[in-house]
Amino acid sequence: MPLKLLKAATAAAFVISSPAFADEGMWTFDAFPAAQMKATYGFAPDQAWLNRVQQSAVRLSVGCSASFVSNTGLILTNWHCVSLCVGDLSSADKDYNKSGFLATTLVDEKACPGMQAEVLVSITDATAEVKAATAGVEASKVAQARAVAIAQLEEEACKDDNKELFRCEVIDLYRGGQYKVYKYRTYKDVRLVFAPEKEVGFFGGDPDNFNFPRYNLDSGFLRAYENGKPVKTPTYLPWTQETPKDGDVVFVAGNPGSTERLRTVNQLKFERDFPLQSDLLILSEWRGRLIEYRNKSVEAKRSAESVFYIVENSFKALYGQQRALADPSFLAIKEPEEADLKAKVRADAKLRAEIGDPWADIDRLLAKQQDLFWQYQYLESYSGATSSLYPMAVNLVRLANEGAKPLAERLPGYSDADMVQIQEQLLADAPVYKEIEQIGLELWLSKAREYLTADHPAIKRLLGSESPEGIAARGIAGTKLDDKAVREALIKGGKAAIDASTDPLIVLARRAEADARAINVKMNQEVNGPISQAAERIAAARFAVYGSNVYPDATFTLRLSYGVVDGWTYGGVKIPSTTNIGGYFERASGEFPFVAAPSWLAAKSSLDPSIPFNISTTNDVIGGNSGSPLIDRQGRVVGAVFDGNIHSLGGNFAYDGRYNRTVSVTTAAITEALSKVYKADRLVAELKAK
Amino acid sequence: MPLKLLKAATAAAFVISSPAFADEGMWTFDAFPAAQMKATYGFAPDQAWLNRVQQSAVRLSVGCSASFVSNTGLILTNWHCVSLCVGDLSSADKDYNKSGFLATTLVDEKACPGMQAEVLVSITDATAEVKAATAGVEASKVAQARAVAIAQLEEEACKDDNKELFRCEVIDLYRGGQYKVYKYRTYKDVRLVFAPEKEVGFFGGDPDNFNFPRYNLDSGFLRAYENGKPVKTPTYLPWTQETPKDGDVVFVAGNPGSTERLRTVNQLKFERDFPLQSDLLILSEWRGRLIEYRNKSVEAKRSAESVFYIVENSFKALYGQQRALADPSFLAIKEPEEADLKAKVRADAKLRAEIGDPWADIDRLLAKQQDLFWQYQYLESYSGATSSLYPMAVNLVRLANEGAKPLAERLPGYSDADMVQIQEQLLADAPVYKEIEQIGLELWLSKAREYLTADHPAIKRLLGSESPEGIAARGIAGTKLDDKAVREALIKGGKAAIDASTDPLIVLARRAEADARAINVKMNQEVNGPISQAAERIAAARFAVYGSNVYPDATFTLRLSYGVVDGWTYGGVKIPSTTNIGGYFERASGEFPFVAAPSWLAAKSSLDPSIPFNISTTNDVIGGNSGSPLIDRQGRVVGAVFDGNIHSLGGNFAYDGRYNRTVSVTTAAITEALSKVYKADRLVAELKAK
């Protein structure tokens, strides 16, 4: 699968007992620390406020957050969250990245291929059920036993619901500390309403990404449809053009993708030296290949736009994470926390007997994980992940193979409910660019041979006497998987159709499957299962020692963060919290990516230069929060979160409230641009309607 | 400057007191441990043997080793050491990488642009003089004071010699433990005699690089000339077609480039997380750009051949180093060694008073180095290093600026003798490919902005309102520095000519110089100088505790390693020491890079398949040793070192005799190929002459 959209953003030293910095925490809606917030800020939201915000918050299947901002399904998110859709809807004749997109009437709103929206409607506890299913199970079978129990719980929780409208998912919180069933209302027809030109949606481009001050209209609008009509969404966030001031309380409701704050220090070092390293190296080479490819022609540049953005953004976010973990002073935040918990467990005989030494157990398992790492990465985790078509082939082969087995024998991630989602993804209508596919497939195959060597038995089976370049060229030229009807026929035909297929990518995926599946099973049995058991014991120790006033690691599920509008001071330089529209024109030097959009230059005299454009706040967020509504104490939407500053990237591991800031585009600037630059009168009227 | 040719190769746990593995050590010729070797193998070379080998060993300016193998200046080295020359001599019409190169008569031998050869003729001690020059000097001025003293010692040591024929250089051994003056006889006209086709010189390509078993004719021949005639070299290594057997003693005489075995553990961690990381990321993106560029046309592929090889080889060597340092079990070799030395210093009151705690001092300095690292890297160390033309511009500007100053105020590396070498390099005749130059210059500028941010004052000064892409395109299109006459005129014109130049690369280098020079000075004053003082104290502690039976870190100067022919066993798999010519044809599957050369296929029936092709030995070598003669106990050359196995890459930090192996191509295979495949009768006759 394509690497996930990432816009990390966060902030100061995570402390286990209770957050060291006032604004730390990505809280679940069923455990919001209202008393703690009230003690700090003299205000906390009541249950009605929380309920309304929860029901207005939207998760997008592209890995972003969003919110309903009208009673007819209008959704606010980021430009960079709709940019994949913008690319999919564009063609050589019409490039919406360049022109922007505005549906002047309802019928002009265009379906985004594969995009789905979801709202979290209920949370119920299932900790006891999941723990019971793995109690007494030997370490190597834990991952599988848990997967089976979870699939059954999900089935049970949604059994009375219309499967087209609702979806149930068990969420692992606190790394095995709690399991909860999250029920989602899903919207499968999501259409594009508005996206600005990339020049203003992503002004400053990669160089300014994760930096501040910023001047980006990184916003876009979508609308949820059902049966060809906009859905009714009576619960939504009211729009305002007011912008909060320094010190004003603000909230972010969204879906932080993942954090590693509860992992052991040695797990973080492993993360730095293996997965992050492996990702950064392949992303760097991929980026280099795409840069030169883009130079070939205008159409090459256009067609590579989306994937290139994802590659650059992922690189920078992951790079920032690795830099944090390479800094001895950053790890020095984590080490005493871990030492404290260990010491408290050791000092309590009963606890010590119950918990044991899960840190030492994890260290031993990390050595095993290291042994398997490169095989797991290149035979399974990355399997064609730098292309779109080959992961389709893998999924088609797996649907056929796993679907033919009883649940208990399937790979995790292939429950019946999972398979419905995979099928839906396989039937999305996104355009495929074969030259870019060939680059991506060749990249994976050539790196697999490089890291595992030409003499590795699995590489010999994968490549035979062919070269990565030859397989990629012939495979992409010959495949018909870019035709949705072909994919549909293969899904319907099941295992027989897959086994009989002569499509070169299906043939390749079939050839790769035994080794890929074997390393997946081995990693789950020998590493992931046993590590999760040890992590459960650490979670139990943490609850026992510090109580429950802690928040779980991010899991791309709905969370609420509170904070205030604030700039920061670093190296003696004071960075103010708020930029304005006038600053955009000042920063535009004229060479890419600092080029002002022609539409803005044309409207310049009518725009109020003093209107706040981008704003920094102390909220604790991370990649996946992109598009989250920034909300004031009245529950009104005052902005859309789109980034974190450069100091935020270590937030994956610890929140540093001194420096880490969330960056949003204001509703004030969005309204001004919609009115004056884009003349989007229909949209403005809908936003302002009460 | 272009990144250095690297072919790391080494071997088992370095132990400070005396090598843990019998064959560990890169010994200087003036301190060869004959008694120790004799105790192990019942044989050690006598002084006559050592003298003859020292005078036959050749260092090449491309970063390789070599040896004289006839009395008329014939030099044996690797194909990959002459491949830059092969590329320089090739053109769109005649690609010697494809066809190979054979001078059938003396007049067909062609000069390699910029290639120089050197022989180490004498070693004299200068430790007292250098230490006196820095005694009592404050830390921030140490690097400069030492540079001045060294320049004066070098001038003094060579003052009676013909500067065209001799060069003197002070070498820092044991990281400040000793300083020695090395006098070299230099040969400035080096010509290509023979190079095989890349298909056999680099069979298996990047995938097989640093792997074994191997089947490479990675060999080439050069000849040293003076006044248009081959030089007389009465001292040379006799040629033999005999190949030593398992357990036979073998030596390697060559120039290991650099090792970090005497650095502190925290310096190694810094190395892993900063310089190695930075190199790997830029090499990965560069590689990606070059892969796509090469796909453009046959000529693009040909013209990028040399740089692409250097990028891939450097990546793999550095990657292997980083992997070693990321493996906790590898660092576990180093940590107890350091703890032991520290404990012994602490336990001895007198020593403790004298040595202090240089490890803690270095830790504090590493924090400073980390602060300055990215600025130093992108403003100075990498400055245009991914191009050829921009470093010329930097050197031209520096020659003018530094040359106008007294020695004590110059940057290190700009003594009068250094400047003569820089001028010679600037006047080499290598071809320049402007499209590749543009990729390289753009890469540096864009990464500089990425890592330092668009808001960094030095980046603002470097780029102005332009983009990296714009500056690179206009700069490379407009520059005349690819014309040697233009460079020569700028050298002759001195500072006035440089200041008046409107060449866009000179203009850019002038604009960059103040910030580049400032960070260079700052790094030397605040980090390098103080670290070198602390390292001197560690070196002193080591001599005091363990005596002098230790070898210094590699410094790309002449060393002798002893060992035996041996394979190894890893993960239960036994790898034999020796491959043969028949195996080459068996491994050739037909798709690149496993394609047999047509010349070999044509000669196949005449070749003896049982002749040893490549051979693995326990010698302790590293990048820079490429091309070194493999020598038997009689002092005959039996092979040319061209690689290390995959386990050897951590040899930069520690030698692991269980697994680390040096890989050579045998003189037996070279002779067979020259006779049967290439019909190089003139060359074979010269090699066999007594």
UniProtKB/TrEMBL annotation, chains A, B:
Q: Which Pfam families match?
A: Peptidase_S46
Keywords, A to Z, come to:
Aminopeptidase, Hydrolase, Protease, Serine protease, Signal
The Enzyme Commission number assigned here is: 3.4.14.-
State the SUPFAM superfamilies in the record: Trypsin-like serine proteases (SSF50494)
| Species the sequence originates in | Candidatus Phycosocius bacilliformis
GO BP terms: peptide catabolic process; proteolysis
Instruction: Answer whether the UniProt record assigns the keyword Plastid to this protein.
Output: no
The protein depicted here goes by the name Dipeptidyl-peptidase
Query: Entry's PANTHER family?
Result: PERIPLASMIC PEPTIDASE SUBFAMILY S1B
The EC category is hydrolase
Similarity comment: family membership = Belongs to the peptidase S46 family.
Q: Which residues form the signal peptide?
A: 1-22
Q: Name one GO molecular function term.
A: serine-type aminopeptidase activity
Q: What does this protein do?
A: Catalyzes the removal of dipeptides from the N-terminus of oligopeptides.
